[in-house]
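[job 0412] stage=fold_complex status=start
inputs:
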Amino acid sequence: MTGGSRLVGEVRVTGAKNSVLKLMAAALLARGTTTLTEVPDILDVEIMAELLRRLGCQVSHDKAVAQVVITVPDALEHRADYDLVRRMRASICVLGPLLARCGQVDVALPGGDNIGSRGLDMHIDGLERMGATVTNEHGYLIASAAALHGASIWLDFPSVGATETILMAAVLAKGTTVIDNVAREPEIVDICQMLTEMGARIEGIGSSTLTVTGVESLEPVTHRTVSDRIVAGTWAVAAVITGGDITVRNANPDHLRIALDKLTTAGAEVSSTDDGFRVVMRERPKAVDIVTLPYPGFPTDLQPQFIALNSISEGAALVTENLFEARFRFVQELARLGADVRTDGHHALVRGVERLSGAPVESTDIRAGAGLVLAGLVAEGVTTVYGASHIDRGYAGFVDQLVGLGATVEAQG
Ligand code: UD1
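[job 0412] stage=fold_complex status=done
writing structure:
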């Protein structure tokens, strides 16, 4: 890619990766045919489809209409193999539904993004409190329960994954489960809404306490995936970093309140539109401090993009990462473009420079890759982002959309 273009135009965001994968897993909870719409055309959806097929489901993905149709049989297999789980950590989200449906589940322990240790202790603790026995053998997490029962569960930290695992187990458990200190991300609200449409009884949706009363069985539904706030936020930063003007369609600005507010502080004009928002930037951005926190705090998945933005802004900013300790690794790559960033544990001090200069860089995970592309958009000369397959995992049609907005960029290999 060659930096220097001002990005101008319109992009449309589809459903959230971090929601659709869980919605596909939630489909396992009901026999019959579930349809998901606004499904993004990304590799992780294919991996999850393959995983569901191996469990005995029929899955078709019609990319032209962004739909996935899943037909779930009466009897499911209960093993998620390492060859798939190692390619996508989110495969772990079949743990809760398979345990609830089969009383037994073997899931390979995940790999996934290269962003630091990602424990499963809260998932396991929650399932144990509901009556499951969980062991770790030969690289597999093995859980069994003759019958799951309601329980009172307190999460040490509002983990997205643990909230989903416990929720999907609780909807078919006998009795009432109260889960305290749950994650409140829009993707959690989305799965709660789908489960409710399927017949689950969930109270407190969107709050930090979910009360789930188990039901005998759930029905398949058609559900529209919530739009991807991280992709929407990435476009917002793209507008600001390039001094551009981007209208983001099918996006909910309420899901990005803090991030968009930060962009306003950086000097952007942000306004709501009929089905999204518009970001216009006319000056050099000012550096903005950020602190990542569980929703509604600033999302860790937008942290690299904001470091890229701060790297060419006026002034200095302190960025604090509270969720994934290794997420600053990409800063070494940003430094290859001339960024001035110092990290110390959870903190990064970014001093804005007048200009970045294009160079080859390596993307280590989805969001780091997005951050490097944003930096490449403003770096003088040519930037080559290696490991771009990571970016494709989170951003459907990214290169085409960038070109549509006026960037000089091409995909290779
Ligand atoms: C999800 C998102 C990811 C996002 C993150 C935080 C998906 C596929 N991924 O990841 O993009 O960055 O939420 O918004 O939806 N932890 C434990 N023990 C547990 C569970 C989590 O220690 O049992 C720790 C993890 O190591 C991590 C932190 O809690 O440091 C956050 O994890 P969690 O909120 O569960 O994120 P994920 O579901 O993995």
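[job 0412] summary: Residues 229-241 form the longest helix (13 residues).
[job 0412] exit 0
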